[in-house]
């Protein structure tokens, strides 16, 4: 709404695999799974979905790295602006700099920077959805900083409120002052208790150096997952800060591993287009021994799942 109203343009470009929420507006940009759109009839018009650089799920036929994938995706985006939506219609380019629900896939920095250049060139806003990646999770306060890119608008929530319901749409004062008073708001917006919780959370993250700790936690997780590299059903283990993913070849193995982990008192969930990815996103203040214990339990669980599910 901010992008449309302050640019006077209508079109929004989002990326396949992104998750932005479940209101009708947000669901219109959400494509991590079609299930979030099922049964709701026509969603927002003027939304265009471009490919996200995800080498394991890319249309290019041969195995390739993230940079090649990014080049392909940028070419697709150019084609979209040539064939489907005129650049001067685009209000915003909205992206998760690291796909969350879509599978814990970080876009290459070169791709994110190219989007910044493109948005500036065509006069569109670059919007980062950092609801999942924000608040220190990636080893920086915001993933944007790791990419060295400043978006025009950034969304934050989840960890922002430290467990209390709190979300934020962040932009420059100048842009916010152009968002006409009364045209956006919410009954619970600016809730004082949630805001107090948010302030306390910011203090804890800062005082306990949790942003720097995210990187250490990520390293520990990947180290503990190393024995799974030879697991015949694992396609990739990847991390960005303290967002770690183990991608299996199919959902049944990921689900079996999660079920076996639960028997060992470790609660995990999947992500990914087909629920084929197990994600690890522990609290940034988790004790190291708890983290290692949990990761080891998962490794054991995944090994037992390898036996349990047919290839
Ligand atoms: C990146 C991202 N954006 C937006 C949301 C939407 O949050 P909500 O469902 O609370 O609206 C989520 C939730 O998982 C998310 O991960």
List keywords for this structure.
binds pyridoxal-5'-phosphate; alpha/beta; 17% strand; Aspartate Aminotransferase, domain 2; 311 residues; 6-stranded mixed beta sheet; 4-stranded antiparallel beta sheet; single chain; 38% helix; Aspartate Aminotransferase, domain 1; 2 domains
What does this structure look like?
With 311 residues, the chain is α/β, with parallel strands linked by helices. It contains ten helices and twelve strands. It has two domains: 204 residues, Aspartate Aminotransferase, domain 2 (3-Layer(aba) Sandwich); 99 residues, Aspartate Aminotransferase, domain 1 (Alpha-Beta Complex), CATH 3.90.1150.10. The strands form three sheets. Strands 2-1-3-6-7-8 form a six-stranded mixed sheet. Strands 9-10-12-11 form a four-stranded antiparallel sheet. Helix 3 runs parallel beside helix 4, helix 8 packs parallel to helix 10 and helix 9 crosses helix 10. It is globular and about 55 Å long. The model has no long low-confidence stretch (mean pLDDT 96). Bound molecules: pyridoxal-5'-phosphate (PLP). Pyridoxal-5'-phosphate binds next to loops. The site of pyridoxal-5'-phosphate (PLP) has 11 residues, from loops.
Give the arrangement of secondary structure elements.
Elements: H1 2-7, E1 11-15, H2 24-29, E2 47-50, H3 66-83, E3 90-95, E4 98-99, E5 105-106, H4 109-122, E6 125-129, H5 143-147, E7 153-156, E8 168-171, H6 173-176, H7 192-207, H8 210-225, E9 234-240, E10 243-248, H9 251-263, E11 269-271, E12 277-280, H10 288-308
Parallel strand pairs: 1-2, 1-3, 3-6, 6-7
Antiparallel strand pairs: 4-5, 7-8, 9-10, 10-12, 11-12
The protein binds pyridoxal-5'-phosphate.
């Amino acid at each position: 709404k901010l992008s449309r109203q302050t640019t006077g343009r209508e079109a929004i470009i989002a990326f396949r695999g992104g998750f932005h929420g479940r209101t009708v507006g947000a669901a219109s940009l959400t494509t991590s799974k079609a299930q979030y759109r099922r049964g709701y009839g026509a969603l927002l018009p003027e939304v265009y979905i471009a490919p996200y650089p995800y080498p394991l799920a890319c249309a290019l036929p041969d195995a390739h790295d993230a940079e090649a994938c990014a080049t392909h995706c940028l070419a697709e985006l150019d084609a979209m602006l040539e064939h489907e939506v005129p650049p001067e219609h685009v209000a915003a380019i909205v992206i998760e700099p690291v796909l969350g629900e879509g599978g814990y896939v970080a876009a290459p920095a070169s791709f994110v920077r190219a989007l910044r250049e493109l948005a500036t060139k065509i006069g569109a806003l670059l919007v980062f959805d950092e609801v999942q990646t924000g608040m220190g999770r990636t080893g920086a306060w915001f993933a944007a900083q790791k990419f060295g890119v400043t978006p025009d608008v950034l969304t934050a929530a989840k960890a922002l409120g430290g467990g209390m319901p709190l979300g934020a749409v962040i932009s420059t004062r100048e842009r916010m002052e152009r968002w006409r008073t009364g045209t956006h708001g919410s009954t619970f917006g600016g809730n004082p208790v949630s805001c107090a919780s948010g302030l306390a959370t910011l203090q804890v993250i800062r005082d306990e150096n949790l942003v720097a700790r995210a990187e250490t936690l990520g390293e520990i997780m990947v180290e503990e997952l190393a024995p799974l590299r030879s697991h015949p059903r694992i396609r990739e283990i990847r991390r960005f800060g303290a967002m770690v993913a183990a991608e299996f070849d199919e959902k049944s193995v990921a689900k079996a591993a999660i079920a076996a982990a639960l028997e060992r008192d470790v609660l995990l969930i999947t992500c990914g287009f087909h629920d084929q990815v197990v994600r690890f996103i522990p609290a940034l203040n988790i004790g190291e021994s708890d983290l290692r214990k949990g990761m080891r339990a998962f490794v054991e669980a995944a090994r037992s799942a390898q036996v349990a599910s047919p290839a």
